[in-house]
Write a structure and sequence with these properties.
There is one protein chain. The two termini are 44 Å apart. The protein has two domains: 32-65; 88-293, 2-Layer Sandwich (Beta Polymerase, domain 2), CATH 3.30.460. It has ten helices and eight strands. By secondary structure, it is α+β, with helices and mostly antiparallel strands. It has helices at 8-21, 30-55, 57-74, 103-133, 150-163, 169-174, 191-204, 245-253, 255-262, 268-283, and strands at residues 93-94, 100-101, 139-141, 181-186, 208-209, 214-215, 225-230, 237-244.
């Protein structure tokens, strides 16, 4: 939005009027006082508008994108390791950092991924779209990524099996809470009421909260509310995030930073800068009225 400022002629007029205020008052002095009031109010309005524009998300988002571009120049993306100590067995899977699934485990996870895709597309997604249609004031965003890619799921399964060897691949896969995920995006002024209403709609649709809502509006690393749900007939877990337009854009902006923080090859020095960047972004996200008061309901 363009910001108009007083030019030199206007400034001279203001100075002239102020000097005139020290002279003996003429018979009709209301005109001078009105002009002084007008210019004072005009200048205050211009400065307030400028501050608001400078501090708003739209005003700072381009600067934050530039800051991330500078970070990537300073810290080129580390090469991901794909070496594995396991033999190169047909049907096996190896991923970043040497993670590995043997052929039997990999086949079991492949079958599970097919099931997740089927339930996600045929059961959960239609229900979320029906819920979306109940309130045209907000919308589902990021639907092109609503089902996690198989390689990402296999990374999570392999990590879970490393940490809990007693699990079966099927159990490890069922424990991934965001294999299917959705994001509802609201305007700031309708955020708190909208989230509360949509949680009720999800429950009325028959979905079960798997965990309490995670309200992160007070966090310095992430702004938003995350929820984990269970589809009762299939047992499939899925995630619903609740965002404003600014917090969703911020999440997209910091996604690569989040990925680098999770990468075991990222240096401690870069980690410090990555967390600093996320704090910088979060500090600029407007917090919608009532967002921090939304309860982490069971």
């Amino acid at each position: 939005m363009g910001i108009e400022r007083l030019d030199e002629g206007d400034a001279s007029a203001v100075d002239h009027d102020r000097r005139a205020a020290d002279m003996p008052a003429p018979a009709f002095q209301y005109e001078t006082r009105d002009r002084e009031t007008y210019y004072a109010e005009y200048q205050a309005a211009v400065e307030a508008e400028y501050r608001a524009a400078s501090e708003s998300w739209d005003g700072v988002a381009p600067q934050l994108r530039d800051a991330w571009a500078d970070h990537e120049k300073k810290w080129p993306s580390p090469e991901r390791q794909r070496e594995s100590s396991q033999p190169d067995t047909p049907g096996a899977w190896s991923g970043d950092g040497g993670r590995y699934l043997d052929p039997e485990a990999n086949a079991e996870v492949d079958r599970g991924c097919e099931r997740i895709h089927e339930v996600g597309e045929q059961v959960i997604t239609p229900a979320l779209k029906q819920i979306e249609a109940q309130d045209p004031e907000r919308k589902l965003v990021g639907l092109e990524h609503h089902i996690k890619e198989p390689d990402r799921l296999k990374e999570k399964v392999a990590r879970a099996l490393e940490e809990q060897p007693e699990l079966t691949p099927k159990q490890a896969l069922s424990g991934v809470p965001d294999a299917v995920r959705f994001t509802l995006c609201y305007s700031d002024d309708r955020y708190a009421a909208g989230v509360t209403a949509d949680v009720d709609r999800l429950r009325m649709r028959g979905f079960e909260l798997a965990k309490s809502l995670k309200n992160s509006w007070d966090s310095d690393q992430y702004k938003g509310i995350n929820s984990q749900w269970r589809e009762p007939e299939t047992g499939q877990h899925f995630e619903v995030q609740f965002h404003t337009e600014a917090s969703f854009e911020a999440k997209q902006l910091t996604h690569k930073a989040y990925e680098r923080i999770r990468n075991t090859q990222t240096s401690d020095a870069e980690l410090e800068e990555l967390e600093g960047f996320q704090r910088q972004v979060c500090a600029k996200i407007p917090i919608p009225p009532g967002a921090t008061e939304i309860q982490d309901c069971p």
